[in-house]
Amino acid sequence: MSEFFPIPKPIKLNPHVELEVFQCQDTIFQLSVVAPNAKLESHQHPESQIGMVLSGELELYIKDVIKPLRALQDIHVADANVSHGFVNPLSEAMIGFDLKRITYSFPSEDVVLTLSNNQDKITHLPCQSVKGSWFEIVMMKIPSGYSIPPHQGEQEEIGFILNGKLEIFIENEEQCLEYGQIYYAPSTVLKKGYNSSNQDINLIKILI
């Protein structure tokens, strides 16, 4: 199995929650589908967790407050060993992602962060991004025919797309990425990309 393009393991957490779980060294990345009006009971774990709604809506229950999470706008942050739960308030399924890993950063001041307009440092394309105590999330459109330049950094990077196909090259491996697949680039490895399709591709990358 490729380290850079991990294969997901499907898990049915309960009758209402289905996961596609990717192991990226010491980090767990999950794509999730939560059934309409379903509730995920309050729970806690030793890992810190972040997540985002991709379509639909969720309500986050954490620290005795309820926070609505808007699709492609809000990031929820749950520190290690902090109880949190979710409810899907809509009559349609919620699709989202979350990421869990052991961290040694200071506790997060906010349980919900919101993306804001910015410019991506690598591509110089317009993006929306937000930075937390141990992560950064960047969301942008890769134009048709655009090449993501070769680059490497001190942070690990996990990325996935919401539509179409995007060619990703990491070291000596390459894959034409589709929705439901991810790439994982450890720190300092060389990576690049290319959109050979005739449509803009929505890319979300997480730096940790």
* Alpha carbon gyration radius: 17 Å
H/E element sequence? EEEEEEEEEEEEEEEEEEEEE
**CATH homologous superfamily grouping of the largest domain:** Jelly Rolls
Domain count: the total is: 2
The CATH C-level class name of the largest domain: Mainly Beta
Count of beta strands: 21
End-to-end CA span: 22 Å
Envelope shape: globular
Helical segment count:
0
At CATH level 3, the topology of the largest domain is Jelly Rolls
Whole-number mean pLDDT: 96
Amount of helix: under 10%
Across the major sheet, the strand order is 1-2-3-10-5-8-11
Largest sheet: 7 strands, antiparallel
Low-confidence stretches: none
Structural class: mainly beta
**From the coordinates shown, what is the CATH architecture of the largest domain?**
Sandwich
Percent in strands? over 45%
What does this structure look like?
- It is built from no helices and 21 strands.
- With 208 residues, it is mostly beta strands.
- It folds into two domains: 9-113, Jelly Rolls, CATH 2.60.120.10; 114-207, Jelly Rolls (Sandwich), CATH 2.60.120.10.
- The strands form four sheets. It has a seven-stranded antiparallel β-sheet, with no helix packed on it. The chain has a six-stranded antiparallel β-sheet with strand order 12-13-14-21-16-19, with no helix packed on it.
- The mean pLDDT is 96.
- It comes from Microcystis viridis Mv_BB_P_19951000_S68D.
- Residues 32-94, 139-201 form the Cupin type-2 domain.
- This is Cupin domain-containing protein.
